[in-house]
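Fold it.
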Amino acid sequence: MPRKSASDAILAPDIVARFRADWQRVAKSAPDGRALIAFSGGPDSTALLLLARAVLGDDCVAATVDHALRPESALEAEAASAFCENRGIPHATLRGALPERSSATANLSARARKLRYELLEQHATAIRARWIVTAHHADDQLETVIMRLNRASGIAGLAGIRTRNGRIVRPLLEWRRADLAAIVATSGVACVADPTNDDDRYDRARLRKVLARADWLDAGKVATSARALGEAEEAIEWASWWFEGQSSVMVDGELIMNPTLLPAELRRRVLKRCLLRLAPESIVRNDGLNRLLVTLDGGGTATLCGVRCSTSKVPGNDALALRWHFRPAPPRRAT
């Protein structure tokens, strides 16, 4: 049984049992080992911390990332630290410089998110935590799926926020924001409010206001659909890995692949895997990958990520059946 402090909130047994079951489903493991809770002091992460403390006891530790983007952030981090200290929960405040803006971190939110996960990963390693746990919930998932629909995302994007990524687990993805608010209210603890949640400069904040008026949308069912899409994404990724391994051969430094009869989505993924076999450090962007696929389907030749890609006809087969050939591109001539 987890050891509890006198300041621990008393949670209803059915709530704790639900959290334990969701943890086990997401992590595919019993809730054991040290878990680092990403704790901002807001209602969502407060509910998560109370639930994790009830289930994990002394294996529950917390960390607050102070991005220093608002004048109040340092005081909020101090309040989060005091909240944990009063309950005997080890806590750390993490700070660091925002990464430089790049195509992968095109806006402030993306850069802050990248910093947050980098700091959490570093701290988890330092304290030998088995898990990093975030408070993403079903309403977050609904917002994410709609935003990605609006950006023409494919299956991977529409799978939304993943329940697990390495040691990062999100056991609350099928809990509603109202569920978490009720836990906090029943426990009688105070929380901070993040003003960026209502700041119309942020896409998510504007969308959240719109969704608050759309009572016909069921965030729980969208979260379930996103989970199904995530499982489909894993299945397609596995299929592309298996096919690339079974149907490719390396001959004299050239990778040869026969993608005949593969559906379009598997062709794209197998093509990407072939490129990464020869250029493992490359970042393969979707627009370049799609152009390359059109070129190869037309029997053409192109270079992407330093890999020369060409085709040849498959002997004794349909005239449209083409093999793919990949080899390192020769160095460019100096001009």
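The mean pLDDT is 90.
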